[in-house]
Amino acid sequence: MIDRLQSGIRQVSGALIEMLRADATDHPPALRHWDWQQGVGLYGLMRAYEATGEPSYLEYCKLYVDRLLAEDQVSYSINGAIVFATVLKLYEHLGDERYRVEMRYFLRWLLHSASRCQDGCFEHSWIEPDVHLVEQVWIDTLFMAGIVLADSARLFGRADCRDEVFAQFAAHQACLQDPATGLYRHFYDGIARSYVAGAFWGRGNGWLAASLVDMLSALGLDDPRSASIVASFQRQMAAVARLQEANGLFHTLLDDPATYLEMSATAALGYAALRGVRLGILEPGFRALGEKAVAATLANIQPDGVVANVSSGTGGFIAYEEYNRIPIAPRWYGQALTLLLLCEALSGA
User: Residues 267-271: what's their mean pLDDT?
Assistant: First the structure.
């Protein structure tokens, strides 16, 4: 199994670099490239570097970020905040002062200037200047912005970042976690006071679960405030475990078997299960959930390293039935979430 995991990481990482290169490296830098899809891709690639020590993964992350910095292509949004998780890691691994300076500017914006809404939640801003998501709370915010806050608290010893992580979790949990099921809703519109479709979106629950284990890994479990995150995560994963299919996959709407089976949700939830067990916040029985997700994911890696059956971008504005019409296509985040899962499995092999 170790050989298969290592081979899968090489395949998926190689395909991810080619996908990023085709989109960005072979073209002039553009504002949109400081954005979430590319940022999640880099996050997965950096995790592959930390798991394997393969220098080409770190080198590509550095190339990508350095090109944007050289062109003064820095821009801030909640969606794009995940790129700064890679900037932070570049500073941690390389010690280049440029990256620390960029982190200081970014964290000042995030903590003091980013727009907020319901109970202090970050409004889920996009990189596009003409998109205004006023009073909107999205399930993926904690992955995009919470992880980098927690890692900044760890690396820089910043209490303000630590406090903000707990505040953001509490506000998002209160707004989006369903008290009856333990699953998380996709989206809340504070103006309409509506969940719109109210769906239990698979990848969205994967974003949330993966962000919680990564935030807790960075913050540690000693802080008494971690208990509320652990309790929420345990409730969510108990519900998730009941919805995994025998083949290890999850539906794009977790509780609706009429919707298609989807790989990014499977990878993210499998990753959260394995890391949750390793952190000691999930019972060992959840390892089976993660192992089934690993087997399903390996079976969906194509010979060229592209992960199959990944759903395309999914906005929170859509009607319930539209979730099942989101097209399947190769995506950077599908590659990255697969890398999180395979690297976590490798660490426990």
Answer: 99
**How far is 121 from 43, CA to CA, in rounded Å?**
23
* pLDDT exceeds cutoff 90 at 294: yes
Q: Render pLDDT for 250-264 as a digit per residue (tens, 0 to 9).
A: 999 999 999 999 999
DSSP 8-state class, residue 301: B
Coil, helix or strand at residue 253: strand
Vertex 177 angle, CA 313 and 86, to 5°:
50
In whole angstroms, give the CA distance from residue 6 to residue 3. Answer: 5
State the fold for domain 2-348.
Glycosyltransferase (1.50.10)
- Given the residues 96, 119, 140, 163, select the one marked as catalytic: 140
Q: What CA dihedral angle connects 184, 48, 57 and 86, to 10 degrees?
A: 40
Task: Verify whether residue 140 is a known catalytic residue.
Answer: yes
As a whole number of angstroms, the distance between CA 236 and CA 238 comes to 6
- Say how far apart CA 16 and CA 28 lie, in whole Å: 19
For residue 28, name the pLDDT band (cuts at 50, 70, 90): low
Q: What's the pLDDT at 32? A: 58
**How far is CA 60 from each of CA 9, 230, 254, rounded to the nearest angstrom?**
15, 34, 35
pTM summary value: 0.97
Domain boundaries, given as residue ranges, for the chain:
2-348
Q: 136 — alpha (psi -120 to 50), left (phi > 0) or beta?
A: beta
C-beta separation of 47 from 339 below 8 A: yes
What pLDDT is recorded for position 158? 98
- pLDDT tens track for 108-132: 999 999 999 999 999 998 887 766 6
Q: DSSP 3-state helix, strand, coil percentages of the chain (rounded to 5)? A: 65, 5, 30
| DSSP code of residue 122 | B
